[in-house]
Design a protein that fits this description.
Elements (H helix, E strand, L loop, with lengths): L7 E2 L4 E5 L5 E5 L1 H7 L2 E5 L6 E2 L4 E7 L3 E5 L4 E6 L2 H4 L3 H4 L8 E4 L3 H6 L3 H9 L1
Antiparallel strand pairs: 1-2, 2-3, 3-9, 4-6, 5-8, 6-7, 8-9
C-alpha cells in the first residue's frame, strides 16, 4: 500500500495536507476506511469551531461501528466537505481527494511537522 508523500499521518489513522492556500485538509487514511467498512454517515463539526490536536473532530458511522475521528493538528474549522452529507462513501472510494473531511485554518505548523511521514506511517500500519 502506498501512502501519499505530501501528507502527514497520525497513529489514529488520520491524515493532514497543507493546501496551497495555507489551510490544512484533514481526512482518514485508506487503512482506516478499510477497517471501518462502508461509511454510511458522517457527523462533521461546525465551521468556526476551534479544535486542539488529538481532540475528537467528527464521527464516522459505518456498517460495522461508529468511530471518533481526531484532529491531527490544532486549528479552526474553516470548511467541511458538504458533499459527504449525500455521499459519505466518498471517504471509502477516495480517502485522499474527494473524501477529505474538514479544512482547518490557524494551524500549528510544528504539530504538522511532528506527525509521521508516508514512510513512517507505512511501517506503522504493517505492525
Amino acid at each position: 500500500m502506498e501512502y501519499p508523500a505530501d501528507l502527514r499521518y497520525t497513529k489514529e489513522h488520520e491524515w493532514v495536507r497543507i493546501e496551497p492556500d495555507g489551510t490544512a485538509a484533514v481526512g482518514i487514511t485508506d487503512f482506516a476506511q478499510s477497517e471501518l467498512g462502508e461509511i454510511v454517515f458522517l457527523e462533521l463539526p461546525d465551521v468556526g469551531r476551534a479544535v486542539e490536536q488529538g481532540e475528537s473532530l467528527c464521527v464516522a458511522e459505518s456498517t460495522k461501528a461508529a468511530s471518533d475521528i481526531y484532529a491531527p493538528i490544532g486549528g479552526k474549522v474553516a470548511s467541511v466537505n458538504a458533499a459527504l452529507s449525500d455521499a459519505p462513501n466518498r471517504v471509502n472510494q477516495s480517502p485522499y481527494s474527494d473524501g477529505w473531511l474538514v479544512k482547518l485554518t490557524d494551524i500549528d505548523k510544528a504539530q504538522f511537522e511532528s506527525l509521521m511521514d508516508s514512510a513512517e506511517y507505512g511501517k506503522f500500519v504493517k505492525h
